[in-house]
Amino acid sequence: MNAPRIIVMMTALLALAACATPETRVRNGLISAGLSAPISACMADRMVDRLSLGQLSKLNGLGKLRKHKAGDVTINEFVKQTRALQDPEIVGVVTSSGVVCAVK
To answer: Coil, strand or helix: which one is 102?
Structure first.
């Protein structure tokens, strides 16, 4: 493969990676925070419909604080961490989403 072709392919791949949906970013953040993949996917689906982008960004910051293996953190522990954000709406949405998704 020649160099210009490789550069075009790499640019295309980077552009696709930058197009991750808010739901994907939230899901990955929840997994990074230690929630299981199925719970994270379910909660992300609910949270992107109920929280603003600013609130989702705040929530994403929790995943960056501590890197855990998926499934190491319970929903209850995550809700406790979420309280540190001091946003009652985020805590309410995380709590209700966690309960709904745990029951599914």
So the answer is: helix
Rounded mean pLDDT, 16-33: 78
Q: How far apart are the C-alpha atoms of 82 and 63, rounded to whole Å?
A: 10
From the list 50, 3, 53, 5, the residue with the least C-alpha distance to 25 is 53
Tokens of 77: 């522990």
In this prediction, residue 11 carries a pLDDT of 59
71: left (phi over 0), alpha (psi -120 to 50) or beta: left
- Helices within the chain (DSSP H only): 3-18, 22-32, 37-50, 53-65, 75-82, 88-103
CA 94 centroid distance within chain: 11
